[in-house]
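Reopening this ticket.

The earlier resolution said the output was attached, but the attachment link was broken on my side. Pasting everything inline this time so it's all in one place.
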Amino acid sequence: MSTNYTDVLKKIKEAEEASNRKISERRKALEAELLSLENEADKSIADAKAAADAYVADESEKARNAARKKADALFAATKKDADALSAKSLGKKRLREIVDEILFSEFKGE
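Inline output:
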């Protein structure tokens, strides 16, 4: 009976060792898979951040160009109006009215 008992203990020990090896192998495989997923996630996040930064830079450039065009158009229109006004000869009465409007608008809070 002791031989049987010893054989059973050996089989139990072998089964336990085999189970431990399988568990250890599975754990290593899962850890490697997890590391791979983490690396993929990090790369995906970095790619998304780079794409977002590029989008923001592109949209900022578009907005800057649009603002520049509007400012240039406003400047051109103002220059045209100024040139038209400077080409006109103003009488003393009209010049006095313009000066009064400008000066009094400061006091009126306009």
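Reporter confirms the inline version is readable. The radius of gyration is 42 Å. Residues 2-108 form one domain.
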